[in-house]
Each structure stands twice: as structure tokens, then as C-alpha cells.
Amino acid sequence: MLRASLLAAARSTRMRSLIETVPATRAVVGRFVAGSATEDAVRAVRELTEAGLRISLDHLGEDTTDARQADVTVQAYQAMLAALAAEGLASGADVSVKLSAVGRSLPVDGEKIALENARKICVSAAAMGATVTLDMEDHTTTDSTLGILRQLRVDFPWVGAVLQAYLRRTEQDCRDLSGAGSRVRLCKGAYSEPESVAYQEKSEVDRSYVRCLRILLEGNGYPMIASHDPRIIAIAEELIAETGRTADDHEFQMLYGIRPEEQRRIAAESRTMRVYVPYGDEWYGYFMRRLAERPANLTFFLRGLASKS
Ligand code: FDA
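Above: the input record for the complex with dihydroflavine-adenine dinucleotide. Below: its predicted structure, written as C-alpha cells.
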């Protein structure tokens, strides 16, 4: 109930202007978002890299309905990749891109524009030795994202995508994307989805995650295990051993600011741990999804507001 309300609020412009204008919000948001500017992102990447972690940078933004804004987002990715390269941090880095931030929601030719914009980001990433992963948004966009992925992979075979275990279709998508060269980030899923397309109970989502992960680990691609859930991580470790995977043919991933000690523990065991680092001013939707995932975050948020107001 609380999750559904927070996810509804994530899409509400009224709530957005209310929450964004509370001065103390920013301090709390800072736990999950690396900062506003490219320099903030570079600083966070430097710190994480020095701690033995890999990164995937996300320039925050979604549901853009303005073509100029989509261009600005592409330029932000390009500037960020150049800034990382200037510091020697781009090689092996990844960037995460939401297709709705680069034009897919535009009323005319949205998909075509998103494909072209994603292509520009891929060109820049390739020049810097970085990779690109397409984030997955709500279920109405899954086919479109996978279609754009297929087209990008013709020229950039290393482009990855996110699959969401809460969707009933995802086992089949995992089968389709478990071939050689394929990079799949498997997560549980963060949007409010109807029963007709998505499992609703946590236990069902977790079981689906394990089935999907088994398919990916038994395949020939590069699975990216994106979860903070200790049970999922323990099961993943068993499946990795069972399927004979080695340290360099899969990776673990977590979000910036969530279970940082666990991130370092996994990295210290010579395993790849990549941290998803969001930055930029358009943090509202991302932040609300993080609140929805864990009631304790809402308490933390409200306490932060109370102590600073
Ligand atoms: P679960 O939600 O069951 O949490 C397990 C435990 O992890 C909790 O008990 C708590 O300890 C910790 N935890 C989880 N979330 C927390 C939070 N917000 N704050 C504090 N602690 C928390 N989703 C999507 O729909 N599309 C996408 O493209 C992506 N991309 C993505 C990339 C990466 C690298 C990650 C790690 C996750 C995503 N997600 C995503 C989000 C994902 O779908 C999911 O909502 C969250 O990862 C939470 O699910 P967990 O697997 O962590 O388990």
C-alpha cells in the first residue's frame, strides 16, 4: 500500500514540486544521488574506483517530452564520458541510459529519436573504452527497449540491458538474451505494475529472480546480478559455483549509497562489484523509487526533514 502510494507520488507533478521545494530534502537525497554536476559524478567515481569498485553512471532524467532536453541529456553523457577520460577513469566504466530521457516519450518519432540519441552515447562510450546499459522502465516500454537494444547491438555488440524479474515475461527474455556477448543486468523491478504482467508478492518476485538468474548463468552471456538482497546474493554465489562461472564472466551490482559495506566486502574478495551512480538535478523519480523500496528510507527521509526544519 505504502509502496504503491510512493510509486504513484513518483509520477505526480504536484508532489514533485512540493518535495523538491523543501530545502532540507537535498541533504537527504545526497545519500542516494552523487550530486548535481559532472564534477560531482567524477568525484564519486574516483572515490569508488579507489575503493576497488567499478561504476555505472546515470545522468538522472526520465519521461522527457522536449526534444531539446533530450539533446541536452545526450550532451551531458558525452561531457561526463570526456571528463572521466580526462581523469583516466573511463576505461571499464559503464553508463546507464533511460530511453525516455533521450526522447522515447516524444510525441512524434520518439523511438527513432531515442535510438539515434542512444547511438550517439554509444559512439562516445566506445571511444573512451566504456560500455552502455539500457535501463528498463515500466512494462509498456519493455518491447521498445529490447527492440532498440537489438538495433544498437548490430554496431555496438557490447550494449547491455536491464531485465526485471517481477515481470512474468522475463524468464523468456532471459532465454532470448543468454547468448554469447549479451550483457544482462537482472534486477527485481522498481515500478508499480499490474498483476496481469507482474508478480505482486515479494516471495514470487524472489523465486522468479532465481529462475531468471539460473537461465543467465547457464547461458553464454555476461550476467550482471543487481540486487542488495542478502538471500539473492547467497543463492547467486551457489549458482555461480554450480554453473562453473569464473570471477571474470559475471558481476554484482548495487546502487550508490545502499549497503556500501557489502559492496566493499564483495569487491575485497576479488569479485567485480559495480556501483550504479546517479547524478544530476532530475532526481525526483529515482529518489521516490528508492523510498518505495524500503519503508525505513521513508522514516530516514522524514527524520532528516524534521531535524533540518
Ligand atoms: P529488495 O528490495 O528485496 O531489498 C533487499 C534488501 O536490500 C533490503 O532488505 C535492504 O537491506 C536493501 N535495500 C534494498 N533497496 C533498498 C533501498 N532503496 N534503500 C536501502 N536499502 C535497500 N529497477 C528497474 O525497474 N529498472 C532498472 O533499470 C533498474 N536498474 C537497477 C540497477 C542496479 C545496479 C540496481 C542494483 C538496481 C536497479 N533497479 C532497477 C532497482 C531494482 O529493480 C530494485 O528495485 C532494487 O534493487 C531493490 O531490490 P533488491 O534486489 O535490492 O531487493
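Notes for the reader.
Residues 135-136, 162, 164, 185, 187-191, 226-229, 232, 253-255, 258-259, 276, 290, 293-294, 297 surround dihydroflavine-adenine dinucleotide (CB under 6 Å).
The first strand starts at residue 54 and ends at 59.
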